[in-house]
Automatic annotation (TrEMBL):
It comes from Streptomyces hazeniae. Keywords: DNA recombination, DNA replication, Endonuclease, Exonuclease, Hydrolase, Nuclease. PANTHER family: COMPONENT OF ATP-DEPENDENT DSDNA EXONUCLEASE, NUCLEASE SBCCD SUBUNIT D. The keyword Amino-acid biosynthesis does not apply. This is Nuclease SbcCD subunit D.
Length: 391
């Protein structure tokens, strides 16, 4: 069976205030063409279909068009909700559109009920594990602890139990949206830390033939059977070195996996440039970046006048400008965004406690209280996003 694994479409997202709907439309056109040209048997979308719980109308229309085009090809699509999606909104009418071959898996309680696909070698049980917020799904899944590893393990226990009751030659695929240990993150993924821990071991997926992962935006292989497809477009300059692609997975009669990367269209390359303003404006080495989206970091000892306007004359698509004077001491007035970049919500909260108490850090009990408070806020946010669909 030939599968196409993709994820993290983030429909409706922009890139530094530049709209990406046209680029997302081009990607979806490319995806549909790939399904037809490569004779794909099923499409797997591992979460974060939308960029936010209440997506703009244009993004919903784009999603609707993509589903119609895939359904017209007669190729089944299995799709889960991610941490950016409202599971309840995405899952509306899922029972109705199932007859068109589009299988939306957004309810954690259904983790152990697969979409059963067929080929000349028999059945392929395809299990959709939507993003599992530990605070909201611990009880539903009967997990022993409130953590990502515990709820995902409980969901996979349901998968393995269902598989055990099927014929021995049944092959298996799991879609999941999680941060798996060994994966390389970028700046554009939302923090999903719970209790100070965000990652789960790849061994959680033992017992299935292929795990199609979503959440991390870089295409990567954790094991031959556990892979991230990554996002089809770059959503931050930290992804400037990514090769955006999808996985074409061939699952043979014995469940062996053969994977091939298929490139996605690039709307415009990214460039991260660093140097003095004069260097960026004159160096021949930068000529190849003149049509790229540019992030420029200026190292001038004295801040130049009108740097953005001057850069834009050579790089008309410059989108981001930062200053990092070489040899300068640490600036106590460095912007808040720069100071917290790359830090989790838990770390930022603990830093705040350290600051306001004059250097006395939070103890273990206090760190636990902070973690509980952050988990409650995340859970409340998820509940609020989902409850709107029922109104």
């Amino acid at each position: 069976m030939r599968l196409l694994h993709t994820s993290d479409w983030h429909l409706g997202r922009s890139f530094h205030r530049v709209g990406l709907l046209d680029a997302q439309r081009d990607f979806l056109t490319h995806l549909v063409a790939t399904v037809e040209e490569q004779r794909i048997d099923a499409v797997l979308v591992a979460g974060d279909v939308y960029d936010r719980a209440v997506p703009p109308l244009a993004a919903v229309e784009l999603f609707d068009d993509a589903l119609h085009r895939l359904a017209a090809l007669g190729v089944p699509t299995v799709m889960i909700s991610g941490n950016h999606d409202s599971a309840r909104r995405l899952g509306v009418a899922s029972g109705l559109i199932r007859s068109a071959g589009v299988h939306l898996r957004t309810d954690p309680a259904g983790c152990g009920t697969p979409v059963v696909l067929h080929d000349e070698h028999g059945d392929v049980a395809c299990y959709g594990l939507p993003y599992l917020e530990p605070t909201l799904t611990q009880t539903t899944l009967g997990a022993g602890q409130r953590s990502h590893e515990a709820v995902l393990t409980a969901a996979m226990d349901r998968v393995r139990a269902d598989l055990a009751g099927r014929p021995a030659d049944t092959r298996s695929v799991v879609l999941a949206h999680a941060f798996v240990t060994g994966g390389r993150p970028s700046d554009s993924e939302r923090d999903i830390t719970v209790g100070g821990v965000e990652s789960v071991p790849a061994a959680v997926f033992d017992g299935v033939d292929y795990a199609a992962l979503g959440h991390l935006h870089g295409c990567q292989t954790l094991t031959p059977r556990v892979r991230y497809s990554g996002s089809p477009l770059a959503y931050s300059f930290s992804e400037s070195e990514h090769r955006k692609s999808m996985w074409m997975i061939d699952l043979d009669a014995d469940g062996e996996v053969r994977a091939e990367r298929l490139d996605c269209p690039v709307p415009r390359p990214l460039a991260r440039l660093r140097g003095t303003l004069d260097d960026l404006l004159t160096a021949e080495a930068h000529t190849r970046y003149e049509d790229a989206w540019v992030e420029a970091t200026l190292t001038d000892a004295v801040r130049p006048s009108e740097p953005m306007a001057r850069l834009a004359r050579r790089f008309p698509h410059v989108l981001s400008l930062a200053f990092d004077p070489e040899g300068a001491p640490d600036d106590p007035h460095t912007g808040y965004a720069a100071r917290v970049r790359g830090r989790t919500a838990q770390q930022i909260a603990e830093d705040f406690v350290l600051h306001v108490r004059g250097g006395r850090a939070a103890d273990a009990h206090e760190r636990g209280l902070l973690g509980d408070a952050l988990d409650a806020v995340r859970a409340r946010s998820t509940e609020t996003a989902g409850s709107g669909a029922a109104r």
